[in-house]
Amino acid sequence: MPKRPWSIVWVTLSVLSLGALGIQDRRDLYSCDLCRARKVERIHSVWGVPFERSERAEVDGDPGIGHRHDWWRYSSSFAYGPYGALGRGWACHTFRYKDRTN
């Protein structure tokens, strides 16, 4: 094979592998101790640049008119590389709510 096609193959493989190594997934869990609501936030990024973000909140009952959530992060997890191949980790509080209850 001539030299030029091999260089194109190497450049393509290098770009794809560097992109895969830069993948990071993060999931944060939040709670509001005032109304007992919970929220899950997921962020997918490549080399620190977020490209997908999702947020889902679950509220038990009616929080009332004018209620503003006081979100408190009680758990966080992350994965580096495809499917966490380069590392995983998590951190969490002992309690789910800021008022130290579960």
Task: Characterise the protein shown here.
With 102 residues, the chain is of the alpha+beta class. The protein contains 1 helix and 5 strands. It has one domain. It has a 5-stranded antiparallel β-sheet with strand order 3-2-1-4-5. A hairpin with a 4-residue loop joins strand 1 (23-32) and strand 2 (37-46). The longest helix is centred in the first third of the chain and has 19 residues, at 3-21. The model has no long low-confidence stretch (mean pLDDT 85).
Q: Helix/strand-derived class?
A: alpha+beta
- Could you name the ranges where pLDDT drops below 50 across 5 or more consecutive residues? none
Number of domains: 1
Q: What portion of the residues fall into strands of 2 or more residues?
A: over 45%
**What is the H-and-E element order?**
HEEEEE
What is the residue-averaged pLDDT?
85
Biggest beta-sheet profile: 5 strands, antiparallel
**What's the N-to-C terminus distance?**
65 Å
* Total count of helical runs of at least 4 residues: 1
Rg (CA only): 20 Å
Instruction: Provide the helix percentage.
Output: 10-25%
Compute the number of strand runs. 5
What spatial order of strands do you see in the largest sheet? 3-2-1-4-5
Global outline: elongated
